[in-house]
Amino acid sequence: MRISLFQGILIGVFSLGALIGLFVFATYTGSNKSAANVVGPVVIWGTLPKDDINTALVAAGKVDATLKGVSYVQKDPETLSTDLATAIATGAAPDLILSSQENLLTLRKLIKPIPISTLSARTFEDTFTAEANLFAVPGANGYYGIPFLIDPLVLFSNQDILSSDGIAVPPTTWEEIIGLVSKVALFTPAQQITRGLIALGTYDNVHDARGILSALFLQAGAPLSSYSSGDTLAANLGETGNGGVRAGQAALGFYTQFADPSKISYTWNASLPDSQRSFLAGNLGLYLGYVSEARYFVAANPNLNFNVSPLPQPATAALKSAYGLVYAFMIPLGAKNPTGAYTVASLLTGSTEQSTAALATGLAPAVRSALASAPADDPVAAVAYAEALYTEGWLSPAPADTDRIFSSMIGNVISGRSNLDTALSFAEQSLTALLQQ
Q: Distance between CA atoms of 13 and 35, rounded to whole angstroms?
């Protein structure tokens, strides 16, 4: 393909900006050693709450004046990719994008990757947690972004409910949860649920169902998606093991049993309100959600006496695993200040800036060194910091498309329209079709 003179100049400008910015990233060691005296204005579009990020930026700007020219615009994650494409086409692109891996595949064609020649795999892996590798370009050709924060999936417990039912500590394994259903769940004579133990089994009224299902699949050994050859991404809901059962079947079977009235684990159904609302109202003993939701519960119901603990693990697991959203800074095509953008992203990986951002948002740092010491007076942060070290994730289609496929899979199982294997196979085919578009 022939490249015009204008295209060649434009590519050269972007490449030069990348090299300069990545030199800054590679040599930056902390907020007291500013990478540049002036980075110029840097506009960030992101999916995290505006107030939280602005608080973090203001605090970081007081430590390092080079961050004072940074501004943040909150965007809807469902329209982020289309908004960005339009902005690039009209010459109005921001300088940085801040989003999680759940939007990476819809964004990657609009992102300028960081070449491996300027940011080595060793530096990246030594600096960031394991889940950050989701931002690696296939074929060891660089990285789509610089990781910033992690929002792990955790277990919330209604302390009043558990204590009144003689449960001293939250469950640490999934198997323990099944044993608690009979102690906590309450039913009317007509077997209508008036208080549930935990919201599992259905999809549309389980607030964080996509993350919960992802965690169960990953813990079962099903990667959900993987590169089959080169840069071809395909769904992988678990290979068939020695017993003739796919790894994903265990996860799917475990999840759906909680909505089966014929089983002792029955504690939830599709007629109940959204699970977050149920927990907030004190009608759920346990709730699976992201650690960032802790602040919402405190603000929405100050009388809710809840505890935060790590995501349960399979009883036989040798290693811990949890699902998390890892947010990263990405440089879009058409950024007006790519050099300043790289500088800002690198500055925000400093230990001081990471701790400041985590405090402002309620999330955990993505930098390993910053996770070494959680705030001593914050038990929620202690859980988030510890869990961030072993969070995992997967490269998925757009969240709305993933929800549609997962919802259909769950609905077909709990209605009896499909058995576990059939529902799993159809979901895998549907996900692969989207991943390869």
A: 20
